[in-house]
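Quick one, tokens below:
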């Protein structure tokens, strides 16, 4: 039975996020252990939701204001697929307007950036019980492989999903070659 997620054997070992990992801001590095704790708490919440059928447990930490405006909290999820003649990158950007998205090529990187704006107007009479949605600027930097054709890039935005297709130069697709071994 095949799972809806790609099997690990189908995942390519290319390091698409090399430049993004290099560009951590000092603020994000200083708080990295806290991000890990919050990520772990979110994973535990999902585990309890699956085990107990969605019963709401109290949130022990209120982190909505603590991390406001820091790098890394608003980061669109991406999928990267390799085809014979192209790479297809999909990014989930729900709630982001098309005119708030920016896609650019910078040296050997594809940069997806934009802003998710809050559509909620603060009203003095509102009593907010919980805030889980994130707003603000985001930026994803994807390092392109050597066989990516930067002159052959197209993008489409539909229903909160950005799809970027990058052609491949099949002459560079294989960096593997046989080396002849000479006798003695």
């Amino acid at each position: 039975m095949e799972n809806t997620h790609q099997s690990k054997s189908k995942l390519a070992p290319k390091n698409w996020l090399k430049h993004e990992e290099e560009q951590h801001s000092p603020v994000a590095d200083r708080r990295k252990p806290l991000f890990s704790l919050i990520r772990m708490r979110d994973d535990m919440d999902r585990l309890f939701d699956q085990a107990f059928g969605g019963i709401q447990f109290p949130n022990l930490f209120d982190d909505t204001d603590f991390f406001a405006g820091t790098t890394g909290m608003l980061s669109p999820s991406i999928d990267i697929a390799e085809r014979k003649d192209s790479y297809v990158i999909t990014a989930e950007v729900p709630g982001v307007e098309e005119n708030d998205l920016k896609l650019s090529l910078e040296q050997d990187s594809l940069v997806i950036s934009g802003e998710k704006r809050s559509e909620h107007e603060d009203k003095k009479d509102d009593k907010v019980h919980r805030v889980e949605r994130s707003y603000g600027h985001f930026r994803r930097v994807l390092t392109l492989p050597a066989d990516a054709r930067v002159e052959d890039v197209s993008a489409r935005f539909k229903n909160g999903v950005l799809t970027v297709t990058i052609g491949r130069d099949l002459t560079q697709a294989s960096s593997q070659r046989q080396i002849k071994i000479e006798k003695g």
